[in-house]
From TrEMBL:
Protein name: ABC transporter ATP-binding protein
Alphabetized UniProt keyword annotations: Antibiotic resistance, ATP-binding, Nucleotide-binding, Transport
ABC transporter domain boundaries: 8-234
Pfam family, one: ABC_tran
UniProt cross-references to InterPro entries, sorted A to Z: AAA+_ATPase, ABC_transporter-like_ATP-bd, ABC_transporter-like_CS, ABC_transporter_ATP-binding, P-loop_NTPase
Compartments, record wording: Cell membrane
Membrane topology: Peripheral membrane protein
PROSITE patterns registered for this protein in UniProt: ABC_TRANSPORTER_1, ABC_TRANSPORTER_2
GO molecular function: ATP binding
Keyword ATP-binding found: yes
Presence of the UniProt keyword Iron in the record: no
Domain of life, per lineage: Bacteria
Species: Streptomyces ficellus
């Protein structure tokens, strides 16, 4: 892929707040046109600080960011009409109705969608006449999303789009984001929800303390990690009796955990050993690494490999 096919690019981008605290310590990634890219990370990892650089709300203290081939801060006039932004906290006048709010926004947007269409997209059609202050938290998030979509953006930035939504609202939002992607929109979202990243993102990056620790497709991020086999041995049998190749096990009394990059082989060997020795493996559980494990390893600070 050539660099002009990337619509979002960050190259060694850093962000330093007043007082000298460096919240983003040099991130590099790119997002291709029509891709959904998720930035994952614990609270304070630097996701919002990074996205704000891409939205042109701040300038990197070092490194570069480009959106649609432009510097989003210096060339804001070129970039702003082509992007949609859903911030973590929208904040609109609470006395206006939903329709009035969208209409007001549409007045400042070139080529805006019809108000009714924007509301239908996010499932707020039936709430059009309700005052914003009477909306639930989840409905306010959907109104935020409607405003971000008003100008039919080529690039959509979603900062925790499903926070505060119930399970159904979350799934509706995912479906809408997929439809937008299928229509050619590029989406960069931040999220705490691993399931959201796993089901929605074409590629993702996990941030920790201002930098990207790992990145790739959800399958790549998990494939790089060992699978896990857990079981308990009966009384009188110790982990030392396991075949040599399986002894890299951790064990605590009867409970054994084997971490392996060759799940099928290790499991086969274990089951063969159990049959030959007549040992019953209680609570046997074998699973490939999940995104959740990758995330938790990173969030606990045990994972420090950079990309
Ligand atoms: N205006 C600011 N001035 C100083 N420090 C800030 C400012 N905004 C954020 N920070 C700090 O920068 C770090 C990264 O914050 P940021 O909001 O980017 O993280 P995040 O990954 O988006 O977290 P969350 O998931 O909680 O939204 C945090 O330590 C935060 O306290």
């Amino acid at each position: 892929m050539t660099s002009d096919e990337y619509v979002i690019e960050a190259d060694g981008a850093r962000r330093c707040y007043a007082g000298g605290f460096e919240a983003v310590t040099g991130v590099t990634f790119s997002v291709a046109r029509g891709e959904i890219f998720a930035l994952l990370g614990t609270n304070g990892a630097g996701k919002t600080s990074t996205v704000e650089l891409l939205e042109g709300l701040a300038r990197p203290s070092d490194g570069t960011v480009r959106v649609l081939g432009h510097d989003p801060h210096r060339e804001r006039a070129a970039v702003r009409p082509r992007i949609g932004v859903m911030l973590q906290e929208g904040g609109f006048p609470s006395d206006l109705t939903v329709t009035e709010t969208v209409r007001m926004w549409a007045g400042c947007t070139t080529g805006a969608r019809p108000v009714g269409e924007a509301l239908e997209l996010v499932g707020l059609g039936a709430r059009a006449g309700v005052r914003v202050k009477q909306l639930s938290g989840g409905e306010k998030r959907r109104l935020d999303l409607a405003l971000a979509l008003l100008g039919r953006p080529e690039v959509l930035f979603l900062d925790e789009p499903s926070t505060g939504l119930d399970a159904e609202g979350r799934r509706d939002t995912w479906e809408l984001v997929r439809q937008l992607r299928d229509g050619g929109t590029t989406v960069l979202l931040t999220t705490h929800y691993l399931e959201e990243a796993e089901t929605l993102a074409d590629r993702l990056a996990i941030m920790y303390q201002g930098r990207i620790v790992t990145a790739g497709t959800p399958a790549e991020v998990t494939a790089a990690r060992p699978a896990r086999i857990r079981f308990a041995l009966p009384h009188g049998v110790t982990a030392g009796q396991l075949p040599l190749s399986l002894r890299a096990a951790e064990y605590d009394g009867r409970r054994v955990e084997i971490r392996t990059r060759e799940l099928q082989e290790a499991l086969g060997e274990l089951l063969l050993w159990a049959r030959e020795t007549g040992v019953r493996l209680e609570g046997l559980d074998a699973r490939s690494a999940s995104l959740e494990e990758a995330f938790l390893d990173i969030a606990s600070g045990t994972e420090t490999v950079g990309v």
